[in-house]
Amino acid sequence: MTHLNLSPVRPSDEPLPDMLRETGGASAEFAHAAPRPMPEGTPIALSAHNVGAWYGSKKAISGISMEIAKNAVTALIGPSGCGKSTYIRCFNRMHEFAPHARVEGTILLEGADVYAPGVDPARVRQRVGMVFQKPNPFPTMSVVENVAAGLRFMGVRNRAEISDRVEEALKLAALWDEVKSDLKKPGIALSGGQQQRLCIARTIAVEPEVVLMDEPCSALDPVATLKIEDLMRGLAERYTIIIVTHNMQQAARVSDYTAFLLMAGDGAGHLVEYRSTADIFTNPHDKRTEDYITGRFG
Fold it and tell me: Could you tell me if residue 95 is inside a domain?
């Protein structure tokens, strides 16, 4: 696996400072949102310390501190407009693609700052891959070319290696048996659910450590959605998964930990509550969390 040459800022399994642990970096209204719900000693893949994101003068998220458990599924829930998608785009620096966008705070990947000077954003995105809301296979490429695209971008030229890694990625994405007899067909000729699994295969072919999924099932039918959900649980054995979803049942089914974000009076999204999924859905500590997951608003 290719690694970035990042200088560790602090060990990834070291607890957050007491100030961040108590406040989550947010205002008093959100002061109880502990950034680390998992037991001490749990391996940590990503750490966000007091992260805020801007679009020009508009602040989208504010003061979010979270630690993301390694090889687990973490769900982000909350009403539309509370900054969930913006937040995960900060993890792999895709937020930078937006005009006049900027990020404040610190994001650590395996203890190293992804925004440190000299860090190549393309390598960050190799290690922190992303699957989008709507399937987006490259329209002029075949199935095999779609999966191999990231490998070729990384400079992999050995045909046997590319073939092996494409096959492995398609198997991990539970798509191999459906396409192995026609790998040269256009990726866009697949069904919607197959296209999304193709995009997952394309993402994991470059061997990321973290996979971000931004509402990956919102455009799919129930059968295709179930396949993606089953896939997430299997992929978590090898990767850290972070999913944005508006589907409370989906969050409850697939995730180990759940974070609830909400827009505050300042117009920015803040972290309200971050706990194990079992706890947050059965015994939420914040009334706003309870109201949201029971459908009283949002």
Answer: yes
